[in-house]
Specification:
The chain is mainly beta and about 110 residues long. The protein has a single domain (about 10-110), classed as Thrombin, subunit H (Beta Barrel), CATH 2.40.10. Helices cover about 10% and strands about 50% of the residues. The protein has one helix and seven strands, in the order βββββββα. Strands 1-2-3-6-5-4 form a six-stranded antiparallel β-barrel. The longest helix is centred in the C-terminal third of the chain and has 9 residues, at about 105-110. The protein is globular.
């Protein structure tokens, strides 16, 4: 499968409380595990499915994230939910640093030295 992302995502791990509206318009909440992140989007691992195109949001102490669900697929250990951030929710290391963050590109560059 060809990579369609325009930005490299950084691997990360952090627990976040996620909110969205289901097909009936009811507000739903669940805990998600932030798997990866980039300026324009993120992937969350969750125990429940989230509808495609649903507005989804969560907060960190320094930054509020909002976006739309672009994919939701079940894989052996749960649902993986891809989120495209709204322009005002774009991520940077300055606004929010997940509990664990790994920049694979930086790691590869160090390995070349």
């Amino acid at each position: 499968m060809q990579e369609r992302r325009s930005e490299i995502r950084m691997l990360c791990a952090d627990m976040v409380e996620v909110c969205w509206k289901d097909h009936a318009g009811r507000t739903r909440k669940a805990t998600g595990l932030l798997e990866d992140i980039s300026a324009s989007g993120a992937c969350l691992q969750m125990e429940t499915a989230v509808p495609l195109e649903a507005e989804i949001h969560w907060k960190s102490p320094q930054h509020a994230f909002a976006g739309h669900v672009r994919y939701c697929v079940f894989r052996e250990i749960g649902y993986f939910v891809g989120v495209e951030f709204e322009p005002e929710s774009r991520w940077s290391k300055k606004t929010y640093r997940p509990q664990h963050l790994l920049d694979l590109q930086q790691l590869m560059e160090r390995g070349k030295k």
